[in-house]
Amino acid sequence: MSEALVRLDEQAGVIRLTLNRPKALNALNSELIGELDATLAELETRRDLRAVLITGAGDKAFVAGADIAEMRDKTPEQARRFATQALATVKRLERLPVPVVALVNGFCLGGGCELALACDWAVASDNAIFGQPEVGLGVIPGFGGTQRLPRRVGPAMALDLITTGRKIDAAEALRIGLVNRVVPQGELDSLAEELAGQLAGNGPQAVRAAKQAIHDGQGQGLDNALALETSLFALGFAGDEQKEGMSAFVEKRKPDF
Length: 257
Ligand code: CAA
Prior knowledge:
2 domains; four-stranded mixed sheet; binds acetoacetyl-coenzyme A; 2-enoyl-CoA Hydratase, Chain A, domain 1; alpha/beta; Lyase 2-enoyl-coa Hydratase, Chain  A, domain 2; 11 helices
């Protein structure tokens, strides 16, 4: 039996997804995208889910892009279908109700960078390399890069990166806000464990509501977005979670969520 292209490990409701095509630097072909989509469809149904971490197999790449060999002979219609399928999967990842964090462990190029951009935030090892090199292949980014990159780093920096196709190291990615933290390569796993512990230790409904408020608020005017925050804040007082969190503080103990 062939090895899964998406590996799934779980601890206390935190799922770690590993894109597993290391010989091709985890390049995104249709098969891998299909497996990722099916995995995400299952995760969407999990009410006990706390967070998702996503990374690439091996020590060289997160994802080196969409699969160039697969794309080479596509017609415009086939390219549209390929991008539409991938975009739907990327959106599925982005819209999971829990925090999704990219653990960028090497090359993070083209479709790989676009996948990382769909995550709520990204952390990287110091050997990570980022870029949208598509124009060098005669195309533009097709998995959301022209839209999510400017929203993350601003339009001028996105235009710089996308029109030059230049690659940047982890330090520059940190400086421009493409990633939140950079650690030495050997420490990425322990950072992932620390993040998993922090995310799983907080009130799960509060964490979900925080993601919802931030995501849904982005597309709205400030007044509507603040009203959304107030609604979600108030809703937090409807369940046991807020009672437990605040009682634990008053009683000087750790909350048990
Ligand atoms: N698609 C298909 N195969 C890929 C790949 C990709 N995006 N990236 C790497 N590979 C394969 C290579 O073909 C090679 O396979 P073989 O061993 O069978 O020859 C294997 O992975 C290892 O790669 P290299 O030998 O090239 O490794 P390297 O260390 O010399 O170079 C690299 C690493 C700089 C990342 C280089 O592999 C590279 O430039 N890859 C392509 C990066 C790129 O252009 N990505 C954008 C793709 S287009 C896209 O993503 C469009 C979109 O927005 C949807």
